Amino acid sequence: MTSSLPLEDRGLAYGDGLFETVLLNDGQPRLWDEHLARLVRGCHALGIPMPAEHDLAAPLAEAPRGLAVLKLVVTRGSGGRGYCPPRDPEPRLAWQVSAFSPAVDAWRQGVRVRHCRLRLGIQPLLAGIKHLGRLENVLARAEWSDPQVAEGLVCDSDGVLVEATAMNLFWQRDGRLETPCLDRCGVAGTLRAALLERLAIDEVAAKPEALLDAEAVWVGNSVQGVWPLVRLDDSDGHMLASWRLGKMHRALQAEAQALLGYPLAEH
User: Fold this and answer.
1) Which residues does the annotation mark as catalytic?
2) Residue ending a domain, choose from 50, 73, 99
3) CA 166, 169, 170 angle in degrees (round to 5)?
């Protein structure tokens, strides 16, 4: 286990690896089983040996009191020739623990979100896992600098809704909770996985227009929790829709807050 990676590591050279970002509260990980399950899926998809669970949990002993975030990085290690991976990889595990404060105002007041111009490439072999090659997300996030805009929504190359740049997407339409199906691209978040187990949420293929018919829309992840949308803009910053926060917004949020150990958002 290491807190850094050498320059010849394949994770640095090619994005040949995976990562997990875990919320800690007094050293206790939230949604730990979901994080481990996604890491197992990612290691299987990339053909990287899964680290031992006790190695993955070792950084927890060094976590500070209060809220923190643990970032775990698993790479294929060094070796191989060019893109050709080594036959018997020796993976590396790197990690970092940082103090953290959630965006409480976003829980309570909701957020403004915009559509991004960038389109995600479709690659089912990598769909759902949290691999290191996240340049698409970086470029999408670089599309705006307005601090009033909290997130950006991205579609795949066929124009189907996938996710936000760093969060999953949910909405309620005709009384039904829905979230994009992530079988072609995108990151299947651990909070999303936990909510799918507990609530009746349909995984659907939908175009952006679906959000205009939604009674409520949210973005969320396992670190920040769930943020309700109060405004949706197009990629030029023009408002497409707005929502007044109500009980339906708080219901999904309450489930997420409980899973993460956060207090309920104020009405």
Assistant:
1) 21, 130, 163
2) 99
3) 155
